[in-house]
């Protein structure tokens, strides 16, 4: 059984699939970062952007592994899909960092909601 990591001409950079990968990883990063920022544990709150990014990259890697092993209807894993995943994570991390730094300047002395997780 021969396995290949696709990245050639049958996988264009500007395909709708790449946009879906960016949006998917962006959304997962935002969701898990927001969830971690509401935790009662200060470690999770401090590292919420990293946590969201790690969950998103893990989800993207799992999707590519599923593509490679035939779990999803696909031609196999794609390096370009992985790059699109990483772009979504980087965009989310930048947005979260800018939002967090802007919010920390304006929220001096106010309390925030914390989830019991």
From TrEMBL:
Q: Does the keyword Transmembrane apply?
A: yes
Q: Which UniProt keywords apply?
A: Membrane, Transmembrane, Transmembrane helix
Segments crossing the lipid bilayer: 19-36, 43-62, 82-99
Write down what this protein is called: VanZ-like domain-containing protein
- Tell me which species this is from: Microthlaspi erraticum
